[in-house]
Write a structure and sequence with these properties.
Length: about 150
Amino acid sequence: MRRMLTLVSTAGLILMTGIGTAQTANDPIATRKALMSSVGAAAGLGGGMMKGEIAYTPAAGKAAIAAMNASAVAFGDYFPEGSDQGDTKAAAAIWSDPDGFMAEINKFAAATGAAMEASGRPGPADIDAFKAAFGPVLATCKSCHEGFRTR
């Protein structure tokens, strides 16, 4: 039952993120927020499994990795000039140092891509394999937030 709840919750999370992103396509700030919400939920799921707070399953591990990867490959497209104004936590450094910001996005995409490859079609076989694949992804989140996020 716990496994099924985890899988249903994960599937719902991914579906809701896709719907939210589709609804905000004309608003880059709203789209960024939807993508970051997906990343946060995937990080919460993955972190919970890594800490043993949530039972690990390969499908849930793959879903967390896939959600991160989908956001990583799309994220950089939603920081056009002028989208630094409004209700956003994006730091001014994104626009003053676009090369540095894109380097962070590229590290995120590379880490999530490597995690996708390492996890195979069914997902990482066990929690140790998941930790090895997902840990580097979480590290890229931290490094980007340190230089390119406010608050």
